[in-house]
Structures are given as C-alpha cells and as structure tokens.
Amino acid sequence: MSAEDKNINQGSLQMANAKPSTDEFIKGLWRDNPVFVQVLGMCPVLAVSNTALNALAMGLATTFVLLMSNILVSLLRNFIPKQVRIASYILIIATFVTITDYAIQAISVELHKSLGAFISLIVVNCLILSRAEAFASKNTLGKSIADALGMGLGFVFALFCLGAVREILGSGTFFDIALFPSGFQEWVVMILPAGGFFTLAIWLLIFNVFKERKQKDE
Amino acid sequence: MSDSLWNIFIGSSLINNFVLAYFLGICPFLGVSAKMETATKMGGAVTFVMLISSMCAYGIHAFLVAINAPFLQLISFIVVIASTVQLVEMFVKKMSPTLFKALGIFLPLITTNCAILGLALFQTSKGYNFLESFVYALGAAAGFTLALILIAGLREQLEFAEVPKTVKGAALTLLIAGILSMAFMGFSGLSF
Amino acid sequence: MRSSINFSQFFSGNARRGTFKHGVHPPENKDETNGLPIRQFPFSPLIILPTVQNIGSPSEIVVREGQEVNRGQLLAKATGYMSVPLHSPESGIIRKIKNVPTISGKMVPGIYLEALPSSTQEVMDGTPVELESATREEILQGIQDAGIVGLGGAAFPTHVKLKVPDGKVCEYLMINGIECEPYLTTDHRVMLEQADDIFMGIRYLLKSTGAPKAIIGIEANKLDAAEHLRSNIPEDLPVTVEVVPVKYPQGSEKMLITSVLGREVPSGGLPIDVGVVVANVATTAEIGRLLPHGRGIQERVITITGPGVKKKGNYLVPIGTPLRYVLEQVEAAENISEVYMGGPMMGVAVSNLDISIVKGTSGIVVFTSEDVKRPTKIYPCIKCGACVDACPMTLNPSKLGILAKFESYDLMADEYNLLDCFECGSCSYVCPSHIPLVQYFRLSKSIVRKRIVARKELEYVQ
Amino acid sequence: MSILIAIAALGGLTLLLAIMLVIANRKLYVYEDPRIDVVEDLLPHANCGACGFPGCRPFAESLVDGRSLPGKCTVSSEDERQVIANYLGVDVGAEEKLVARLACAGGTNVARNRATYQGMQTCQGASLVSGGGKGCFWGCLGLGDCEEVCDFDAIHMDEHGIPQVDNDKCTACGDCVEVCPKDLFTLQPVSHRLWVACKNLEMGDDILEECEVACTACGKCAMDAPGNLITMENNLPVINYSENHNTKDPIQRCPTGSIVWLDEKLGVVKGRESQKIIRKGERMAGES
Amino acid sequence: MSSKTLNISTSPHIIANVSTDTIMLNVVYALLPVAGFAVYSFGINALLVILTTTISAVGTEHYLCKLSKKESTVGDWSAVISGLLLGLTLPPTFPLWMAFFGGVIAIALGKFIFGGLGYNVFNPALVGRAVLQAAFPVAMTTWYPAMALDRFSSISTSVLSTPFMQPTVDVVSGATPLSAFKFDNIIADSSDMALGLISGSTGETCAVLILLGGIYLIIRKMMNWRIPVAILGTVIVLSGILYLVDPQIYPSPVFMLFSGGLMLGAIFMATDMVASPITPLGVVVYGAIIGILVVVIRIWGGLPEGVMYAILLANAISPHIDNMIRLRVYGTSKQTKHD
Amino acid sequence: MTDTSQTQVLERPKSTPMLKAMVGIGIACGLLIVMTYEGTLPRIERLKKEALEQAIFRVLPGTVTTKTFLLSDAQKLEETTSDEGTLVYAGYDGSGDLLGIAIEGSGQGYADIIRILYGYNPNTEKIIGFYVLESKETPGLGDKIEKDESFLENFVALDVSLNGDLSTIQNEVVPVKAGAKENPWEVDGITGATISSRAIANIMNESIQYWGPLIVQQKEEFTAD
Q: Which of C108-112, C413-417, E198-202 has the weakest average pLDDT?
C-alpha cells in the first residue's frame, strides 16, 4: 500500500509545482499505473479479464466514468463542502455508472451479460474515488481531464494485458479469433478465479523486476 | 428454484466466496490481510456493514419496485450504503481511535468495497426474500472474513520467511489468494 | 486461547511419571572415567587466579605483588553479598597483579602466583563453623567465607542460593547428584568417595535452610553411587536417595524438582517458590569438608576426558591451574581442536589455553580435529518439531528460532516465553537442520534483557 | 412520470443523507490537525528514530505541537527541513550533524585471532562465544552487523574487515551504536576531528601481540596535547571536546596510530610515528 | 600441543546424528516402493510421468536457486520428494508436457515464492497438482485401467502428445472407484483397492505399500504419526457414523479409507512438516480438519475426490492452529497468560 | 496554539451549503439517469427481444414466426404480448405450422444455477432442441454442455412421450454414462463433465414433467389462430 500512499503524496506535492498536463497523462499510463503500480481497482481487473474483449470493454467503461466524474468533481470542487465530498462524489460516480450500464446494454446485450454485475461495480472501483478525492478535487479541469485519461488508459492497458494473456492461454483465442490450430489445449485455470490472481501476480512481478532493474541502474 | 438457507450460506461463504471466486473486496483484502489483528477487525466491520447493507438493499429494492423506478437501483444502493458506512466510520473514530488507526484509510474504503455493493446487487438479482438475503449476507461476510483471516495467518507466517524481494508485497498476497482460490474449488458443487 | 489446552499433556507424549516432559538422550560417554578414582593433580609452578570466578561481583585483591602467601590464605575478599572471597590454592609468591584472560574472553583483574617448590602445601585453617552452635546466618556466612560457589558449573554463590527468603519455607533440601552432562563423572566419583563429607554438608545445609528433609537425586546410570550413599546414610539424618531416569537435562534443578516431587518451578521463579532448595552434590561435599575447619576452597574435582586426552581421569585440581599446564599433564593430543570447560551440552568452548581452572569448572573435555563432528550445512527450519519434543521447558524452539532469525526479539519474549529458556541445548542437539538455536536464544535473551533494563530506566526517568 | 419519480426520490434521498451527515458531523466530529499529515509527508519517511521519536508521524505530531524543531530530523536535507520550518512558521533549530565513529582500527591485517569462531556469522552472535575469536577482547569482530543494520548505506566493511563510515551518508540514526556488541561506535559531531580509534583497557606493550594498532596507554598524546585536552583514563586517552581541539599535535607521536585526525582532504590520518605500522599493514595486505 | 588456534562455537558441542537431508532422503526411500508399484501396475506410462515430474521439479529448483543467486538446494532432496509426489498423484497416461509444467509450478509457485524449503506454507506437490487440476481438468480425470496387458509394451499416445496440444484419448478410460461411486453408485471391492488393482492416480492405488512406507518413516521417527492417524481416524469415525445411519447412501469406512488419494495424502502429503502445525495437539486438530473436509467433499461435494483440497485448506489453517494451540510452557499457570 | 483553535473553528462549515450541494447534485443526477434510461429503453428492449428470438430459433430449427404464451393462474395457456409472468414461446414455420414450443428451465448446476431453453414438439412428444441461456459452469469442463456435439445430439430427438392418461411422461429423462445410451429417453453424459451434463438432464426432466402434460392437453391453443 505504500505505493498508493506515495502516489497520493506525489499528487499533493505536485499541485505545488506547475507541471504540464501531459505529465499527468503519462504518469498514469506507466509510472503510476493504477493497477500494476498502485494496485487499485482490483475487483474488475480480476473478474472480467477472462477475455480480451471483456477487459477492453470494462476498461473503456471505467475510463468513461473516471473521465466524467473527474470533470464534474473538478468543476464542482469549490462548491462541495469538505464534509459531504465523499457522498457527493459517489453520487456523481453512480450516476455515470448507471448511464454506462444502460449504454452498454443498448450496444450489446451479450456484452452486458458477460460483464455482469461488474459494470455496476465500477461505482466502487477504488481507482475512481481515489482519483476524485486525491486529484480532481484539488486540480483544475484541464489537469483533471488529463489525469483521468492517463489513469483510465493505464487501467485499460492493465486490463488488456491481463485479458489478453488469460484469453490466449485460457481459451486459445484472441478477441474470439482462434489463434492456434485446433486441438490446442486450453489452460482452463487461466479463466478461473485462481488464474486471475496468478496472472495479475505475474504482471506485478514483471513490473517489480523492471523497478528493481531501474533502481539498480540508478 | 428455492434453495435451503443452509445451502445459500454454504454457497456464498465457501463455493462462491466473495474474495476468492468473485474477486469482491480485493482492495481492503490486500491492505488489511497483513496482520491477524487487523484482519479480524476488518472482518468484523465488513460483517456488520454487510448485514446492514443487505437489509437496506432489500428495503430499497422493494421500494423501487413499488414506485417502478428500477433505474435508480444502483445509485440508491450506493448512496444508502455509503452513508451508513460513513456513519459507522465516524462512530468508530469517535469511540475507538485505536481501531480507527488500525483500519487506517480502509474504513472510508469500505464504502468503495465492492463486496458490499456486490452483495446488494447479487441478492437482488437472485431474487432472495428477506430471510434469504440475510443468510446470504451472513454467508458472504463469513466467507470474506474466512478468506481474510486465512490469508492473514499465512502472511503473518511469511513475515518470517525468506520471500524473494521481487515477490514481496501485493504479488505474494495475490499468489496466495490464487492458491487458496484453487483450494476453495474443492467446495464447488457442495450441497447438503 | 493463547496458552495451551489442558489435555495437551495427553497428546504431547513422553509424559511419564517420575520425570519431566521431553528431554534428549545424548550418548553418555562416561564409562571411560566413571571407574577412575579421584587423584590429586600436580601443583602447577604458576597459578593464575582471575578475581571473577562466580556470578555476581568480583572479589577485591587484598595481597600485593611480591607477597608470600600460604595455601588457603585469603587473597581477595568478597565485595558484597553477591561475591565470595578467593583463597590461595598453593603456597607461593604473588608475582604479578594484572589483567588475566578468562573463558568469557574478557580480561579481568587477576593474580599470578608462583609456587614455592619447597612448600609442603599444608593448608591454612581458619575459624571453624561449629555445626552444633552456629546459627543459620553463621553457616551461610561460613559458606561465603569459604568462597564456595555452585560447583556444578553455574558458579552461583552458594550462600545466596541457600538463603531462604523471609516468608518462604523450605520443605525439601534437594542434593543434585544427577550429572546429566555426557562425559562428566565428577559428581559420580564424589558421591562414591566423599559420602561422609556429603552427609556432613547436608547437616550444615539442613540447618541453614531449616528443611526437615533432604533428598539426594541420582540418575539411574549411577546406581552404584546411589547404593553407596543409601547404605551409608547416618541414622539420625533424614535423607532419602531418589533414583531418576537417565535423561538430559535431568540435572537442571527445575527438571530435578519436577522429576522427584512433581512440582513445577513457576516461570521466572526460584526453587524456593515450591519449597525446595537445591545444592549440587560436590558443593555439599565441599561445605561438609571445609566448614568444620574454617578453610577456603582451593581445589576441586574435575573430570578431564575426551578423545583428545591420553590420561583421562577424575582429578583434584588446584583452582587457578593454567589450562595449558593441565593439558600437558594429561598428555593431550597434538591436534586438539576444541576444548570445553564443562560438558559438551552446556560447557563453554575455550578460546585460549592461557586461561585457568576456576571454581565452576566441572570438567574439561578435549576433542581433536578428527573427532569433531561439525554440521556441514545449516538447512532452513522444516518445522519437524524435534526441538519441540526435546525442550524440557516445553517452549517452541522452532518458532523462537525463526523469530530470532528475523530479529523479532520482543515477540519472542512476550509471546513465546523466551526468558524461560535455560540454554540446555536439547533443541540444538536434535535439530536436523543444525540451526544454532541456543546461540540465537542466548543472543535474543541478552538483547531482551538489555531492552527490559532500558525500559525500566526510561520509566524511572519519567 | 419517471422523471418526476427520479427527481423526487433522489432529491429526497440526498436530502435525508445530507441531514444525517450534518448531524453526524456535529455529534461525532473528531478534530485532527491536518498539518500533521502535511508535515509527515514532508518528512523523509525513514522512520529511523534519530529524532528521538518512534517514527516520522509522532515526530510530525510533536513538530506541529511545537514540542520540537525540524532540525531534529537528521535524515532530511537542509532544504527539506527549511520547507517544514517555513510551513510551520518556526525556526529550523539547526543541530550540528553527527556521524558515527568507530573506536577500533584492528583489521585482519594488524590484529590477531585467538581462536577460530564457528557459528552465526554476526558480531552479536560471535561476541557471545568467548567474546568472539579476536585476540583483543575489545576489538571489532568484523562480521559486519553495523553494515547490515545501516539503512542509509553509510557503512561498508573494508578489505580488512573494519567498518568504514561514509560521513556524507551517515544520518546518526544510532542503529550501529546499538547493534555493536563491543560498543565501538559513538555519535560525534563532524567537527570533532580528533578521536581515539581503540578501546582496549590493557596497558603496556602486551596488547601489541594481539593488535598492532592498539593503544598502549603510553600517554604521549596527553603530554603533547595543549591544556587539558587529553587525559588518560582507564588506560585510554579521553578527549575533552570542550577544549579547543583544532590541533593535530596529539597524534604525531602516537606509536600505534590509535589516536587519529580527520583531515578535510586526506581523510583519516595517523601520526608520523605510526606511519610504519600503516605501511606494514599495507604490505601485509598486499601479500595476502 | 599444536600452536594453531582452537575452534570455538556455542554449546551444545555435540549433535544428534540426524540431518534434514537424511530425513528427506528417507522419505524418498519410503516413496520408491509406491512408485515402483505404480510402474508395475500402470507400466511404462507411469514411469515416464513420474520421471518427468521429478526431473522438472529438481531442475526448476536448481534453476531458480541459480536465478536468485543462491546456492543450489537440490541436495536437500526436498525437490525430489515434491516431484515424486506430484508424479504419484497424476493419472498414468498424463501428457508429459503437462507433467513437466506441473513440476515447474510445484516448485516455483509452491515453494520458491515463499522462500524455499522451510517456508512453503502449502505442500508444493499439491500446489502443482491443484494447478494442473484447474488447468487441464479433462486430462486430470482421464483414467487408465490398472494391469493393462500391454502396459510394458506400448506408450500411450496421450502421454506423448505434443506440448500445448490436447492429448488424444486412445484408451478405454477406467473410472476410479470414487467417481464410480459418486456418479454410478458402484462400490469397488475393498481387497482390490488395498492391493491396488484399481484405476486411479499412479501412486494412490496400492494402499498397502503406502502404509508400509509410512510405517517405515514412523519407526525411523521421520514422520509425525499423529497426522495420518488423526486423518484416517476421523475419516473412519465420520464415515462409520454415516454408514450406520444409512448404508444405502453412504459408502463404508473401508471404502472411504482405501479409495482415492486418501492414503497417499494422509501419509505423504499432509505430513509435510513445513506446512503442518508443530504441537502434538495441533497436528491432531489439523488431521481432524483434513479428515472432516475429505468426508464432506466426497459425500456432499460436487467432486468425487477432495483429499488435495482438504490438505491445501488445512495447510492454510495450520498457522492459526499453531497460533492458538501451544504447549503449556513449563512453570506457567494452566490458565491463559495475559501480559 | 491560537491558530490551531482557529483552524478548528474554520473546519466546521455551516449546514446549508452541505444540504444545498447534496440535494442539488442528487437532483441533477436523477435527471441524468432518467434521461439515459428513457433514451436507451426502446433499443434495449428490442435487443433483448432479438436475443430471445434467436434463442428460440436455435431450439426450434426452421422457425419463422413466434408467439408468446402466458400460463395463467388457472393453468391455462394464453397468447400474450407482455413479458411478465411464466412464458413459453411457440415457433411456426413459413406455412404457419407449429414446429414446437420453446420452454425455459433452470436448476442447480455444478457451480451455480443453470438456465436453459429447450424446444418441445407436442406432436411427436419429443425434445428437439436445446440451448444454454446462462451458466457459470467451469470453463473447459462444465461448459461442454454448450459445445459438446455428442451431448447436443441427445436433444435432437429425446423421447419424452406421455403416458396413456397424459398425466405425466412415460419414461423419465435419465442421465447415463457417456456412450451408454440405449433408450431414446436416456441422455448420454459427458466424460469429465458428469455433474453438469447430469444437471441438464435433471432440469429437463423436472421441467418436462410439468410442462409436457400441460402443453399436450392444450395443444390446440397453439394451432388455433
């Protein structure tokens, strides 16, 4: 959790120095990747990453909610008293999640079915609330948008990393296209809950190795 | 298809364990499973909040069906649950600063604990009646606490192990959770 | 829930009546010396006497360089209650007063005494302590004046140990003739050869402790000694001899009390808390021999043995005899690699042959480089539980070892009763992974004690 | 229709919620100074305890309370301390930088071993076994507990098994002082240039058999030092730092180099007389 | 006397003549007859499977030690045990590439990530098997009849199936007694089961040899006898009660005892010292938990066999058992000590 | 310390802004949600309907048109347009002849409840098609009930003919071991997915026991126009 703490600290320190919005955008993609570095928003990452398509859809839905809520929170940041901020943020987030929910149903019932309750559960994705709380409530609209896009795309990236691995190994397909000649042995464990845990853990390990290498270089 | 209460309990606690099968509540799970003490406290807090929100959710659902506004389900769930949790949080902060310190930033995060909202959503979609919902919540909380305590015990023991540096932290917890999740697969299909 | 469940004894096995729980059975290796009678060891031309020979405060030197002293003359006086005087083991001349090395590696003030070759080594007598007329306090004072410390190895001032605190009653005087350390046969020979001294000592001890009854505890591998003592008990003396099973560390006073009386000395407590005072058999014999003459202790019985020694045996060695001289006399092998003072289970490895025999030295075991069986490799703890089944204090050495490795000393003390460990070595002996458990615990205990002192100081300041 | 329901329901719900929160806010409010968090963020998070508090947060609390000054934190840089001071509107409360110094120079090149130690490869463990195998009872065992315990990478064992302190990295957290079983480390202000690199209490040349750089308690340094700068106590020179000690004189005649001087450019230097020992040591090191 | 310095070390200066590697080696000895019988009854296929898992487990251990720049710990034989045990729990015609993968997982996931021998909170072989079970459920439940006539002359094509490809099922699959009971209510003959004339995992079929191996280890004091006794005892008692209640629905205790991996699990898997509690009472509780779970999963669960899951779950519980059940320390009062 | 107490006072805001903010946001959110709901509702309903029809086509091959029937409280089947209540769907071919009835069934599977749709031909009294609506069965194992061809073949013509007095079916649908199917009312299991395949047979058995007599007795409802 220290990674998370640190990030929030960085966030609060960064408000002092005027950095360009591009920075906010890029940090979420890689350096402070919400999943791999901050270990936030795990539930959907694990639950709906059994296929690449689900992962991508979920990621984009989350990004949309994150973006919209960051915009609104940033706009209303001087209007909302501190004591009711969390409640207000949740209201805002829940609204956009409901909207997303209906939008996805309208796009494809099939997709909605496979994502299941996890669309609704975007509401409680720690990532969204923590960005609203730690960033958007303290920063200008432009920066908040950049932050939301960066974090959101970082989230999509992470989800996609997991989804791709799990789908390829677990089902032998990628976006439902068979990758291997028939007779491929699926690694069923990958689409099971345990596989979700393992895949995420392995991605975290890879990131840790990168981090260690980098530290060594320094 | 009405299920016996006992099977509902087994289902939500062991077979479809919220943490290990549904991945609900992973964030607090990673954070507070490091120590047995905090794990049990967190388990208690979650149990409490789950029971309350299960009852809230049942009431809200009935109300929304009555006024024919299903589209308000999610937002009402989250708002009511969040406010309940916030009340609990303030209460804890006032009453037991040590407990508050132990749970740290995770008390506000109970609000954003997917397990609690997930519980509300699942019990509604399964169409449980009040008693069934209550048992379902009880099972979910028991399962959550069980998983939390099991992992906390293992992590406490692994404090004193030569875990490779790269693996330490969230990755290790996830790997343990994965192994436990496989072990819990042994319960699948369990019914009396 | 934290403590054990009552019927755990049922599951822990090994809870035979008449002995303590757990324990180990190291090879005894006593046969080579237990038949050899005690012989006087030659007087060394140079005696080196450290002033620290006991637990407690050092004694203060009262002689000066160049002074001639007689055997038995007071060389250093006690500096308080937790201190005993030091008597000259040989007639000779004080050559130097300077720091001398000790087995702990520390340099302490000491005396270099050069023997007078012509001396008859007649012992100087002092004021006798009359058994009939002396009060309890006078006997204890006499024991202190004789410079007697626990000869079993711990070297704790005997008069302190024998003192029954106000409000406590001593029901039993326990004479410890167990000698569970492998190789050592000192007490065995003392019991066979000095029965009269032992019984005289018991008389003094019974009087000083007020105990109505004395029990001599002997391990079953010394039945001849038990028989000998039993048949020689004076009729007026309320003494019984109890034979207990052979098991290490039977000789620890807590274990002995449990084996004989079925009582457990409370954690952090002393034997007197269960109405018992324990004295080593050699110490008792020494009291019985010295007090009637008012003498100070100048020599003691030592088993010198081990594969590295040619002339093994039980010797009466003047205190202060340099180890180098001792090994020369017993014709130690060329390739000695390890020398222990005390037995191999709890004895201390000697780092330097320039140290000398002290009051607490019960034996010298010499190994050559060929006999030493060193664990080649330390494996991680596999939690096999051998140590748990060995620990006489029913601690969990496995857990303690892991905690020590990760330096969680406070947890060890608070949760796992670290301070009850008395370093008997059973756990290390059985550990298949060759983890240096005893060393861990010794270190942890010293750190925990330091922290406790620091905490107390802090509280005091506040 | 559903629009009205939605507005009514949500409006009502939020109103209820807001009222509840307002009440809760009144009844259950616990005040915590927000500056504590900020200050804690500004501290280095080393939790080293050099400030005398159990960790950074308690220190932050005491800073906010005004019970202590930022200068107590020896780990953070000058600038960082200034930031905290500015934030709280207090003085930095500068304290002179302390560094750890070792009172032993008896590396494997100059000191003899009495016995071969086997067992736990830590100084703390070795010191329990007859004080470790080292000939000099007081000397450094060289197993590197201090290197291990140092969180700041400031201590490194040199090729002769003697720890060398990096003055720049040392934060005077005191961990090495605590861990050394021979109590060889002390924390001293960097300005203390003169110190004694030996702790043996023996007198005379006997000790030289065990260690060539041991203090023989000859007392020459005390004689050469101005005023009461150096006195001999327990066979060791004791430096009275309250005197002016900006002179290299005391080290010059030391036969074993056990009293040393920190030169700004050259580092730790020894006196003229002891040069032969250093050379000898170097040669020995070269041979081995 | 020599002038060279003496050696000093801390007491005790003598040690008992046991060593971790000899314990492990003896476990291997005890497993060899079981493996031998597996080869005898399932032929060359079983041999290949067991060899593959063993080699991959040992190789992984060696490679991971190298990777983390530690001295290779292959010499302590524990990897061999894990590999052998894993091989003994797999179906006889299990594809070799999967077996190899299982060996790698057993060591990497079951042991290495926790810090190697002594820290593995789960039994490594079972972790490997659990992953295989979850990853390749079909291959893991394709059984091969025991004592097939051509078992020494032909290698099953499924054993040699191409890596990453599905095994081709070329044999008439023989149901295990447990699955036959679960799905078809057929109870196998108990003497057949004791002697291993049934189909099943390579090493779980011959209860007699497994028992003998266990007795050998118990006599040599290299195994905690309380664990298998507690497990088997609990299973006998529980299933005995159920059998008395209704022998039509519930199988007999004898059947429960000799079917599936219970023997192998109770004697060789649950007794993994590292992953089991340490106190005598603790291991009894641990064994009882495994026994209860085995019966519950077998009788009421969806799966025919639950020994693996039961042991993994009990492994996870064992730190708690150790925490709650401790020996009463000498000289402390029998009441709970509070600080 | 004075500034600390000042901060404390400042930290406590007035209640009105809190109320205003919350209620304002609440109302705005409500508006947004309702608008979305209203906006997407028609399309969602259409999509759902399409999905249902597709499923019906799968279990009743050759279907061109469908009709929905509601089982009333009086156990009567009536044509309906609503989507509430207990429903079955009749499928007709191009010439308007009844192909069969699509019936939903559900029951406990291996992991969770399985919902299936199957086609029943009341004329031949056979089950002629089968489709899994919802299942959480173990991928690769239990989910073979959706893919395994030899398993699906069971349901091309599964005999569920009624007994003489049309009160129940003659032979219960019985699951058997893979490859052991001998009678037309038996269902071949799937190796390695025994539980899931058994569950399907059981769900179907239970469902057809209920629906079979009902539908056959009111067969004319479906053909009447």
A: E198-202
> pLDDT of A114-137, one tens digit each?
887 788 888 888 788 888 877 888
**Cα-to-chain-centroid distance, residue A123:** 12
Number of domains into which chain A is organized: 1
Looking at the 3D structure of chain C, how many domains does it have? 2
* Chain A interface test: which of E132, E140, E158, E165 (most A C-beta within 10 Å): E165
Measured distance CA(D163)–CA(D142) in Å, rounded: 7
User: What is the helix (H) or strand (E) element at residue E13, kind and residue range?
Assistant: none
How many folded domains does chain E comprise? 1
3-state secondary structure of C392: coil
Supply B70's token pair.
Answer: 């299903």
Supply the range of the domain harboring residue E145. 20-324
Q: How far apart are CA E11 and CA C347, in angstroms?
A: 6
Biggest CA-to-CA distance, chain B: 59
Q: What is the mean pLDDT of residues C139-149?
A: 92
How far does the CA of residue A10 sit from the closest CA of chain E (Å)?
Answer: 31
Percent of chain A with pLDDT over 90: 12
C182 and C285 fall within a common domain? yes
> Tokens 């001293």 belong to which residue?
D188
| Contact call for F and E: 3+ CB–CB distances under 8 Å | yes
Question: Does the pLDDT of residue C6 top 50, yes or no?
Answer: no
Question: Looking at C293, C326, C347, which one is the last position of a domain?
Answer: C293
Please give the domain boundaries of chain D with CATH numbers for all domains.
Answer: 34-88 (1.10.15.40), 98-287 (3.30.70.20)
Per-residue CA distances from A109 to A106, F44, F52, F136 (Å): 7, 8, 11, 17
Question: E253 lies in a domain?
Answer: yes
Our CA-based measurement puts residue F97 at a distance from the nearest CA of chain A, in whole angstroms, of: 31
- The minimal CB distance from E166 to the residues A184, A192, A195 is found for A184
Q: Do A110 and F51 touch (CB under 8 A)?
A: yes
Q: Is A103 on the interface with B (CB under 8 A)?
A: no
Task: Please name the residue of chain B whose CA is at the shortest distance from the CA of residue F110.
Answer: B189
Q: pLDDT by residue (tens digit) across C7-26? A: 434 443 333 447 888 889 99
> Computed from CA positions of residues A165, A169, A171, A176, in that sequence, does the dihedral angle turn out positive or negative?
positive
What pLDDT does C204 receive? 93
Dihedral angle computed from the Cα positions of residues A58, A62, A64 and A70, in that order, rounded to the nearest 10 degrees: 180
Which residues of E touch chain B, with CB atoms under 8 Å apart? 68, 109-110, 112-116, 118-119, 121-122, 127, 130-131, 133-134, 293, 296-297, 300-303, 306, 308-310, 312-313, 316-317, 319-320, 323
Instruction: Choose among E12, E226, E336: nearest Cβ to C3.
Output: E336
Whether chain B has a CB inside 8 Å of the CB on A210: the answer is: no
Q: Is the pLDDT of residue C5 over 60?
A: no
pLDDT in tens, F48-70: 888 888 888 888 888 888 888 88
- Using CA atoms, how far apart are residues D122 and D103, in angstroms rounded to an integer? 19
Determine, yes or no, domain membership for C110.
Answer: no
Cβ-based contacts under 8 A for chains C and D: 49
Please report the pLDDT score of residue B106 as a whole number. 55
Instruction: Give the domain range for residue C255.
Output: 136-293
Q: What is the predicted pLDDT for the residue at F13?
A: 53
The shortest C-alpha distance from B180 to chain E (Å) reads 7
Chain segment E242-272, per-residue pLDDT in tens: 999 988 888 888 888 888 889 999 999 999 9
pLDDT digits (tens, 9 = 90+) for E82-112: 999 999 999 888 899 999 999 999 999 999 9
- Nearest residue in E to C331, CA atom: E1
Domain coverage including residue A58: 2-217
